[in-house]
Design brief:
The chain is of the alpha/beta class. It has two domains: 184 residues, 3-Layer(aba) Sandwich (Rossmann fold), CATH 3.40.50.300; 36 residues, no CATH class. Helix content is 46%, strand content 13%. The chain has a five-stranded parallel β-sheet with strand order 2-3-1-4-7, sandwiched between helices. The protein has a two-stranded antiparallel sheet with strand order 5-6. It is built from nine helices and seven strands, in the order E-H-E-H-H-H-E-H-E-H-E-E-H-H-E-H.
């Protein structure tokens, strides 16, 4: 999981509110990870990624980690109960006084119900610092599906320096060659149209309902994601301030 450094300061002027718990939502390829990192720097609060939590629990051989590894070794998905337990344990750790950014969780209505109930319990008990006294707000990043397809299928990675290109939006100077070290660029095995469509089906079947859940609760905003990283970050910050003010 990504923790802000001890000297992290807000990066934009005019931040006069507590961000609290934040959930970033959006289809595959909208830039949730990029924006999560931007918000980490902006607000000085951690990104809580279920992928990172899962890997850490497995590496530390916790009870939940051993259970998750057993399921994964059988080719099974890690169940909601196990993932929920890992998230609950993380929220009992320090570093979330200003808030936190959820990345990759909740993915289902079951998980959304769990995190909502967990935060309600923290508020009732008065535990966990000021951030846990605030309700979770959800920000959905919206990008046209055709643009998402171009982002994913056009992505090329340098295996040496790890720089990322896009043959449609940000191509290298020489086709297929990294500008910095001359390495032949690679396309990830899952950066294909077929895989993208499969992920979109799963997203629509599960996570789209999470969007409606928070929209109906009135703690939801949507921002346009087909702009520069800084513009999207600013829109998210402004949306958070509106939601917290209301």
């Amino acid at each position: 999981m990504t923790e802000p450094s001890a000297d992290t300061k807000p990066a934009l002027a005019g931040i006069d509110f507590l961000p609290g718990p934040v959930l970033l939502l959006g289809a595959p390829g909208v830039g949730k990870g990029t924006q999560a990192q931007a918000l980490v720097r902006l607000f000085g609060m951690p990104q809580i990624s279920t992928g990172d939590i899962l890997r850490k629990n497995i590496a530390d051989k916790t009870d939940l980690g051993l259970r998750a590894k057993s399921l994964m070794d059988q080719g099974l998905f890690v169940d909601d109960e196990t993932v929920n337990g890992m998230v609950a344990a993380r929220l009992n750790q320090p570093g979330i006084e200003r808030g936190f950014i959820l990345d990759g969780y909740p993915r289902t209505l079951v998980q959304a119900g769990f995190i909502d109930a967990l935060l309600d319990l923290h508020r009732e008990a008065g535990t966990g610092g000021s951030a846990l006294h605030l309700p979770l707000v959800a920000i959905s990043i919206r990008v046209d599906e055709d643009e998402l397809l171009r982002r994913i299928t056009g992505r090329r990675i340098c295996p040496t320096c790890k720089r990322s290109y896009n043959i449609y939006a940000h191509p290298p100077a020489s086709e297929g060659i990294c500008d910095f070290d001359g390495t032949v660029l690679e396309q990830r095995a899952d950066d294909t149209g077929e895989t993208f469509r499969e992920r979109m089906v799963e997203y629509t079947a599960k996570t789209a309902y999470v969007i409606e859940h928070y929209r109906n609760k009135g703690c939801f905003a949507e921002v346009e994601g087909a702009r520069s990283v800084n513009e999207v970050t600013r829109s998210i910050s402004e949306a958070l301030k509106r939601l917290r003010s209301s």
